[in-house]
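Researcher: Batch entry, complex prediction.
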Amino acid sequence: MSSNTPSSSAAAAAAGSVDPSAARRNSKRPKYSKFTQQELPACKPILTPGWVISTFLIISVIFIPLGVISLFASQDVVEIVDRYDTACIPPSDRANKVAYIQGAANKSCNRTLTVPKEMKQPIYVYYQLENFYQNHRRYVKSRSDSQLRSVKDENQIDACKPEDDFGGQPIVPCGLIAWSLFNDTYTLSRKNQPLAVNKKGIAWKSDKEHKFGKNVFPKNFQKGNITGGATLNPKIPLSEQEDLIVWMRTAALPTFRKLYGKIETDLHKGDTIEVNLQNNYNTYSFSGKKKLVLSTTSWLGGKNDFLGIAYLTVGGICFVLALAFTVMYLVKPRRLGDPTYLSWNRIPGGR
Amino acid sequence: MVRSGSFHVDSSSASHRRTPSRTVTLGHIQPQAPSYRTVYCNDRESNQPVRFKGNSISTTKYNVFTFLPKGLFEQFRRIANIYFLGISCLSMTPISPVSPITNVAPLSMVLLVSLIKEAFEDWKRFQNDMSINNSTVEILQDQQWISIPWRKLQVGDIVKIKKDGFFPADILFLSSTNADGICYVETANLDGETNLKIRKALERTWDYLVPEKAYEFKGEIQCEQPNNSLYTFTGNLVAQKQTLPLSPDQLLLRGCSLRNTEYIVGAVVFTGHETKVMMNAMNAPSKRSTLEKKLDKLIITIFCVLVTMCLIGAIGCSIVTDREDKYLGLHKSDWEYRNGLMIGFFTFFTLVTLFSSIIPISLYVSIEMIKFIQSTQFINRDLNMYHAETNTPASARTSNLNEELGQVEYIFSDKTGTLTRNLMEFFKCSIGGISYGCGVTEIERGIAQRHGLKVQEEQRSTGAIREKGFNFDDPRLMRGAWRNEPNPDLCKELFRCLAICHTVLPEGDESPEKIVYQAASPDEAALVTAAKNFGFFFYRRTPTMVHVRESHVEKMGKIQDVAYEILNVLEFNSTRKRQSVVCRFPDGRLVLYCKGADNVIFERLGNGTDDIRKVTREHLEQFGSSGLRTLCLAYKDLNPETYDSWNEKFIQAKSALRDREKKLDEVAELIEKDLTLIGSTAIEDKLQEGVPTCIETLSRAGIKIWVLTGDKMETAINIAYACNLINNEMKQFVISSETDAIREAEERGDQVEIARVIKEEVKKELKKSLEEAQHSLNTVAGPKLSLVIDGKCLMYALDPSLRVMLLSLSLNCTSVVCCRVSPLQKAQVTSLVRKGAQKITLSIGDGANDVSMIQAAHVGIGISGMEGMQAVMASDFAIAQFRFLTDLLLVHGRWSYLRICKVVMYFFYKNLTFTLTQFWFTFRTGFSGQRFYDDWFQSLFNVVFTALPVIVLGLFEKDVSASLSKRYPELRASMRSRPKVPKK
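Model: Structure tokens for the complex:
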């Protein structure tokens, strides 16, 4: 059209692209990238009935067999548990157990265990303590790792109060944990034949090699007024005191088992095992329980039904849900992407 | 991270910004005192005793020594940091179950990150200051120009500024290389206007240009104390025993630059922080998002949970331990195990330390980081919000309001420049009672379409001229055809008035095709362009003359150059609403030309032209209803005697030191009366691209849009119609001050009476409207409502007694239009909704008059890429076009809100699971407070191990795609009604 005056066409040209390179140089146009334009590939699964039902089905199909297998594994484990804390106190002294355990009487006690099933070696011997807060904050920190590790640091006993020193001399090993070392002992026999319990190799290898020194020997141990637990042979270095090493690895929960030793022969069904035990350890002042446990292991560890039950529960719930959704889908199907369900299409109070 | 905008501000404008603390100190010395300062020019010794401030500026928050204490103080103003400091202290004591590292490490990491950020930002500011302070300027020393850095400049120094140089301080303009002692300055840094302004030196000082002469200049400037008013300056120059009045015309402000002038010489008046631009610098009040405030409440709730957990643990511990005090030999231990109460007390603090991680330490830092990336990477770089024509990308000037965008319920929009283009085109005019111009506006077309009428295609006459600012077509006026019209004389006066009565500067070649008009407002440029096209070509302005090339005046086809001597300019301001020029024709005729708002002009008309007046009024209404902006033009012949006596008064007023403005207004009143009406002009104000669609989308998203404009009611309503804000199905409530009752009261003239009457009327109207509104809301499917109210009524409606009524009425309306409102009222309306209705508000505007509204709203948005930086400087987000609000609110705001909500939930989820495991374990350790996790694991859990997933979620989470959320704006409404963060 001829209506454009020269000036306006010049202005239009100036506004437009006169010199593309110059325009590009001065352009503040943001550079394109998928990140800044928020166009990075992404997916968001839409939970259609098919997806949901098949996911639940798959989970139940995987989980239920797993649970069954775990339960069987746990069932295979043969476990003999014998609680002896009350039984090993003579009936006359049961009114005042603490006085008995602190007294000087003979604490020897005999228990008889019957093997319910064939038990393959190795059979682990545990002691189980209950209501014993080995995880108590003041108990856990009452030890000196550096002292245990090397002779040089035997004076590092700050954390060990109140079992830190004896008459100005440091206690090795110091602290409440070591002081309260478990000291019941078990002697096992079968058909009047002693049953060997191997007490070697019950501690962690790393503990023996790195955490407990080969040249650290017990010193001034259990010399105080109140004896907490076991005494240690001052001639044997800490790295060889495996009972101590096991004990020093504190349990996380108030009910725990600690390895006492291993029986390296098979036990047969119906065998009776005589246990002669020295009931020395005082759990009576805090009403703790003591149990002796003999147990085999499976590929899944000791006897524990939890894992199997957990698998079965989750698998079962998923199966029920899958069934329920299938029924719902068949009975009352709903069209996918039905816009009438959108909030703005629903008349408040209507429908 | 908070002020991302600081990185984008160029060095010159960065000097305007300043830390809040600085503003506070300056606020105290706001010099409204009557005292004035005396500056001895070219005489450093005499100025010595007064101790004026130096010219170096500092906008930094810290210096080397204050950085650590002050920076840490700033950090610890955050309640969460104080909390973690307390926890860290606790963890140093023996009662702590965790090693100090657990709490100290994350805290120091968080502090370090924040401090590094602060230091980095401050370093940038410092470098900026240094580069400004060290730029050089030439000053006069011993008859020579010597270069010194800006910071060494002192008050009273004589400086020389070359072409395109920035003024280092506020300078009194003495002389220039241009003839007539004028110079041109660009004030873009101050007000964003790109047109050049003329500054004129006093005639007495024109000679002091070369060093030898300037050396002799010894003067004394008495002027006002430093203040922040950019457009006023009063003072006197006492030189050679003469007192000369000074005006803003002689003041060159720091921040401006010299254009089209080889060099100028001036005397420094205000330096450094006392310059007007620095006194003006202020930070927008820092805004915190509502979500962040909600977060604080959430954290307090979580803290209460923490205390409860610790109390349970403490009580449990005191019971358990007290009962079994012989347990494991603990009875032998320290004094804190003496009795149950003590045990409980200490265990409480042990557990506080243990459970401290329930409050996520890195929450704030992570959220800041997420928002920073969101704003700098996503918002600033969104190609959908890049405006190619003005080459402006969107810019988030602060990153802490991203998610607020997703919750906005009310938008307050300016009209001019925001909804409309501020692109003015001369469209119609009315001369002597005859209406000219046959175009059809878009608004008229829109109205016609809504009425179902067919719009006929525009018939353009073949010779029609179309250029920027001129879209007028009527053969009756073009090419001298006006000579055959009934009122050729009035036509001539109209064209002359358009060509003479303005403050436009011509630039470039003096030919009609190549000339560029520099005008303060696009209206003015459009009017001068119109005059040019009518054959009255204004081509040259000197300080005293206006040169016009007139065609067809004496006879068809004759072209002659006429120079009109401009005797006085009575400038436009918002109270006067008019502008006048007194000029002398070459033949000695004295004429006052006046143009202004219709009501102002009609008030000042003389007797005798009632019929023209009536017809013109009708035309004005017609123009207004087609969405055109109107101006009335009038003139008056003066006789020399009355003029001379008036001119004396004018000069007196002009040299007044105090209340100069007011006095000038009063003097102007004396001569601007008994005018003769020429006619009126109508200018089309074009809508911005995509505005109606954008508004429709936003209202579907459940956002209500209010238009606040200074325009007339008719224009405002029409723009509202054109924007789809109001339509005919809506029920309209109009509360106007243009009613008979109010007019009657106004004619009686008693101010108190007027106020009472208006208030009564407004109250009555409000009550009636409210009743109707409630009635129609109760009926099913009642019409949507809209409210139109004008500024005068609004003033009374905002009165505390009526405010509640106004609020409940306006909240029931889908759209509200407030017209003829002042900037203050804009802010008042915004805070009315913000505070009164507790809704999230957003203000959008482009001009200086929108600044207060932008600052008053939760989110302020400035329109960038056009003239005027002030709105942008005050805003939180700057976008180039109104239509980008769709993207900003529906895409970025919505996503940001969704993401931040999810991030917060995620944070609390992971920290609750982390801590509740601890809590459960506490029951299994005899409430002793033994820790469940390793020290390092606990300390790094928040700041390292789980930091990335949260941030990734905060950046990439999407529920629906961008296109879907724009196509279904209702999605946003549904999201807002269901709060993602639980209200606590």
